[in-house]
# Entry
Amino acid sequence: MTAPDVAPGAGPSVADEPFPRPVLRHEVLQHGRIVDLVRDEVDLGAAGIVTREYVVHPGAVAVVALDDADRVLLLRQYRHPVRARMWEVPAGLLDVDGEPPAEAAARELAEETDTTAARWHVLADFASSPGSSDEAVRVFLARGLGRVPDADRHTRTGEESEIELRWVPLDEAVARVLDGSLHNPSAVVGVLAAATSRAGGWASLRPADAPWPSRRGA
# Structure
């Protein structure tokens, strides 16, 4: 098989761009506690009209908390849809109206791990499953770590009550991603982004309040 005949550097910039197509009909199939299932009839122009069903999601944030020894804080909890206990980075929904993403990330870090951070930056943004959901996820880097006072700690319930915490050297976490041991998308993206940014002297970091145009409604 030969390589495609594409000139180096030809074509549009390698960057995602908003490109909404006309929605001829929109139907909510199911209202959920957190997400909705919807169906759209979409006009693709010359390609015709197609029907697409997808999940409408409020968005989420995730946190790569890195200590002074370059260890990342991972937590393990049960995820019922995949019937597995997964090692993840702290994360949570953007389900509080008007809450800035960086504040939501700090809240989730405190609630899930009893940890605070003095310095916050954006590591990466991604769409978790763009063929079936509009969920947008922002991954933050948290440094300057501390502990939530005992009296202020969150009482974890449900799956969160079983959370296990572990400090893992960043290089080991990268190895566990690459050998297929870690599957949570926020952990995969966050760990690889942190290692890549560190290798570049952290020059790729963005401010904690950087624009997030890929999140619908942002």
About this structure: The first strand starts at residue 23 and ends at 31.
